[in-house]
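Allow me, if you will, to draw on your knowledge of protein folds for a short while. The matter concerns a single protein, recorded as an amino acid sequence and a row of backbone structure tokens. Could you please explain, in whatever detail you think fit, how the structure tokens follow from the sequence? I remain grateful for any guidance, and I place the record below:

…
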Amino acid sequence: MGRREELIVGLDLGTTKICAVVGEITSEGIDIVGVGTYPSIGMRGGVVVNIDQTVNSIRRAVTEAELMAWCEIRSVVAGVAGTHVQSLNSHGVIAVKSREVTQADIDRVLDAAKTIAMPYDRQILHVLPQQFIVDEQEGILNPIGMSGVRLEAKVHIITGAISAVQNIVKCCEKAGLLVEDVVLESLASSESVLDKDEKHLGVALVDIGGGTSDVAVFLDHAIRYSCVVGLGGNHITSDISVGLRTSMEEAEKIKKRFGCALVEQVSQQEVIEVGSVGGQKPRQLAHSVLAQIIEARSEEIVKIIEWELVRSSYMESLHAGVVLTGGVALLPGIRDLAENVFDLPVRVGVPYHFGGLKELVGNPMFATATGLLIYGLEHGKSTVSLESGPGLFERILVTMKRWFKEMW
């Protein structure tokens, strides 16, 4: 195999799965060349709770992606989520030295905007410009070259707990990976599933994953509000497990096979089979009972998200509606339920900016991982030289031998 110079790797560390996606940069954008997934063991609510288990899950997902792309992955752009993530809007002002705005002036005004009082245990993840103001002229997206003596910037600042971010970086490093950047997962997902018109008109991205639901509001091409809600698909699974008196594994299977977020969309006469615990025989249960359990929890999640949107004060500005993504967006009936609660148009967002093996990622579950590729390309991150050849084969062989030892 030859050597490919321009590859980007996105690593989504979710509560239910670890996902690595390899993209090759082309003149037309990004081609998907490799995808690897593995159940996330050691993560809870977007936060690492077991280092060794998380490292093992990362290694397995990355090795699968390496096998498909036939390359050796050395660095990644990693996603971060969890209720420890917080955000706020800030404002910075400087005097323009040369009476013409330069990139140095933009850097200075952004530094001024992020000079905020912050607890010692938190760090800034992103400083995202909303607009620039030159001599009281508002609504400027790129002020470079403009004449003026006063430059202001309104920005959206996203912060995270230092320990939570460091644990993610540590797990990646223990798995043999260099973390080029850590990106808020809802910000990454927005790159993958939203279009420019939606970001201009006003749209809310709602990424409902296994342990958390990430919310981001965009208006006039800039992010205006973001938050993380500590509820997700695993809470639906837990309710099914308790309500039907079955194991979490069986509850997850039932949710994926028979789940529906609206009782009115299932037949009242239909019956499903539910596995029992303790070696007892499977039971017959009305499908509508399962739908009632799922609808109650789904409605709670959506209503909490609605409350966050109301709190953001941008609810009336969402002219493009709401875009649902993440694994829970695949749940039948969830889009209709969200439309009923939000009283806004809702669509399910899937990654669509890609070539190559794009059918492998045409699923809301890959919104974050693929969005990390676009973010990495736009910000010059994780564009690395990845080699293929005998060294890769030996590395994969060693990894597979270790797996067999663990199994036996």
